[in-house]
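Order emerges. For instance:

***
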Amino acid sequence: METPNGVQSGDCDYKENQGITKCYYLMIFMSSLLISTVGGSLLGWWLLKYHPTNRQLWMVPFGLILFLTPVIVWFSFIMSDLCICKNREDDVFMTNQRIHPLSDSLSDPKK
């Protein structure tokens, strides 16, 4: 059975197999930066124009949601990427359960 060249040498990247490229990450980062900038601008506009009279208060939570959501999403992406096991062999060892001999168990037929 033939295997691809990258798999034989062990250089196969898991993210590249999923189709996630650096260009895709850059596009997501730029769009989240744009959303965060719109939220910050909305908060600034409300502060300059409507804050002295406390009008248009709907702009504050809406601006905060737009401003902070991309930060929270990127933080969760970075933390989840740090927690993913990079070596598939280590992942297999971590998910398998240890098998104990029957002589130590309660269901030992010799007892």
Summary: The CA atoms of residues 65 and 104 lie 56 Å apart. The longest helix spans residues 22-49. Residues 30-74 form one domain.
